[in-house]
């Protein structure tokens, strides 16, 4: 149980440090989560500069509103991913809507489909990054290296039953990416993380 409490304790302490205005806390938080934020934003927006802007906006929001995070609702990582998703989807909708207004190609329905697909992809990325390493390793072998469960078992040094179990659990987690519609709602995330942005 102490192992599970350690990340939550870090999350609470980080929130308290941010609330006190400790710039070092923001730097530590940035070092820990910047690649997650940038990766999710880039997955939604498919634009490096826009992802950079979202990354700055997310950390500015965290700095200005540390009390908006409630440790009882889930990990700090999930809250930051929620903010990233919301900001990125808002930007995607705004830029695509502006293009439609200027007479660009597409329709409002196509815009929503694009947002939905980008959100599912971002959610899948988040799930893969967040899943336990043994599940992630099995999925990476099966997907990227096209290994079947027998080869995966041999590569990982586990039984075939264990390889099948890891692959099944990993795929079950990934299947939830589509279930939530437009939001990357990882297992254990607070309810607001599953709603549409």
TrEMBL record:
A single GO molecular-function term is: sigma factor activity
Q: List GO BP terms, alphabetically.
A: DNA-templated transcription initiation
* RNA polymerase sigma factor 70 region 4 type domain residues: 127-173
Keywords carried by this UniProt record: Sigma factor, Transcription, Transcription regulation
Please report a single Pfam family linked to this protein. Sigma70_r4_2
Where's the RNA polymerase sigma-70 region domain?
A: 29-94
| Residues covered by region (Disordered) | 175-197
Recorded hits in InterPro entries, A to Z, give: RNA_pol_sigma-70-like, RNA_pol_sigma-70_dom, RNA_pol_sigma70_r2, RNA_pol_sigma70_r4_t2, RNA_pol_sigma_r2, RNA_pol_sigma_r3/r4-like, WH-like_DNA-bd_sf
Entry annotated with the keyword Transcription: yes
What family is this? Belongs to the sigma-70 factor family. ECF subfamily.
Q: What is this protein called?
A: Sigma-70 family RNA polymerase sigma factor
Query: Which organism is the protein's source?
Result: Streptomyces tendae
